[in-house]
Amino acid sequence: MPRFEKNGKIFNNPVEYALDKLGGKWKMPILWRLRDKTLRYSELKNSLVGITHRMLSLQLKELETDGLIHRQVYEVIPPRVEYSLTEFGKTSIPVIDTLRSWGRLSLEKDGIKEGQTSENPLLERNKVSVQILQALTPEASGRRYFRIPERNMVFCANSSLLSAEDDFILIQNHLHKAGIPVPEIIDFEPGIGLLLQDLGNEDVNSSLSRGDAKRRKILSSCIELLVQIHSLQPFTPVAQRFFDREKLGFEIDLTMQMISEVFSELNVDAAVTEFSEILNSVARPEGWVVTHRDFHSRNIMVSDSEKLFVIDFQDARMGSPWYDLVSFVYDPYIRYSDGERKKMIDQYCKLSGFPFDANAFGQAALQRLHKALGTYLKFGVKLKMPRFLAALQPCLADLQILAVEYPALHILYTAIESQIILLLKNNQISGSKI
Fold first, then answer.
1. For residue 322, what are the contacts with CB-CB under 8 A and spacing of at least 6?
2. Are 289 and 228 in contact (CB under 8 A)?
3. CB-CB neighbours of 98 under 10 Å
4. Domain with CATH 3.90.1200.10 in the chain
5. Which of 6, 180, 347, 427 counts the highest number of beta carbons within 10 A?
């Protein structure tokens, strides 16, 4: 590509140009913190450890000039300034996310545990040495968890937690007061993370091999817990967020984008059109409840006394009760029998009072598993993380059954399964069926 000039600077290629927009120590961390929320100047400053007021002001001005962020000034006393991403700025988030994933791989290669620095006031205040932290299994988010041996605590490293008004903290407090079993928050430091109650290693996924009687009891308890969540009255911030067409459409588009990235030869246009029609039904705001948003076997912990605790609830929102139910009964991490699925569905409908709607349930399952497919492709195929790869084939098997009345989607899922089998055969990825 020929050299080009912009604002007096000479660039040799698009990468140099992109780095001029996003490079340096602070621009990408600022954009990442704004990826899903609007923040005040003070909130940004508190979350960026080590940045000076002068440097933050300079970086924000440059990002605004480049059209990546929007600055909103409110004429109040005292004046209030808020920052958010522009539509163009949102296009930088997948780039930063990919760089973060590569950074974690590099950290792992070099034997460095993320979050283990000597400047951690949260750990220092609780007399915890970074040397004793034990990294737990990475998840598909920006959070990282570390066990603190013999202290019954887990350190959640999460720089996006900026205040006690953060969604995770607000929702945890409400769920706890409502009697929903959630991990206790022991301490919190803005821009650093949380100390949480250690719930151990066993989740529902790992506990179901205890025997048929234990399995039936745990599954029944999970459905009871789900009904308990769905019985809650709407509360802030959950009441202000919805599984509407915009949110569900975003999840679908993200997976379609991932399919196109991983399998560039596959055409998704017809499948996108079919899903647009499904959304008209799935996103209809009828009978909405407080939904967990990710109610599956690895987000429900099982204590030694077999008490269940729900985790990963920070994105709870108002939506169809079928979304959570299909998340559990069509969980790709677990292979349920048809009888088990029917029993759980019947139990839910009996306890909740919701009459079963086979069409709405099937469409919700199709949308939910399609969303999960995008996650498994990203973390399983692209980043080669085995636990996500293992769930990929069961997910595709269920999607093909659910999409039998949607020819374009059925063809797409069948083609993806063929590609996955080919990759496995050629040892380009490694994994196994559950």
1. 357, 360, 361, 364, 365
2. no
3. 13
4. 204-425
5. 180
pLDDT bin (cut points 50, 70, 90) of residue 348 is very high
pLDDT of amino acid 153: 94
What pTM does this model have?
Answer: 0.73
- Homologous superfamily (CATH) of 204-425 is Aminoglycoside phosphotransferase (APH), C-terminal lobe (3.90.1200.10)
pLDDT of residue 137 exceeding 90 = no
End-to-end CA gap in the chain? 47
Closest by Cα among 218, 335, 232 to 288? 232
Number of Cβ within a 10 Å radius of residue 239 = 12
92 within 8 A of 31, measured Cβ to Cβ: yes
Strands, E assignment, 104-162: 134-135, 144-148, 153-157
Give the CA distances from residue 68 to residues 29, 48, 59, 314, 370, in Å, rounded to whole numbers and listed in that order. Answer: 13, 18, 11, 26, 30
Q: List, in order, residues 6 or more apart from 271 with CB less than 8 Å away.
A: 256, 408, 409, 411, 412
Q: 3.40.50.970, 3.30.1160.10, 1.10.274.10, 1.10.10.10: which CATH number matches 4-94?
A: 1.10.10.10
Reported as a single tens digit per residue, the pLDDT across 266-317 is 999 999 999 888 888 787 778 899 999 999 999 999 988 889 999 999 999 9
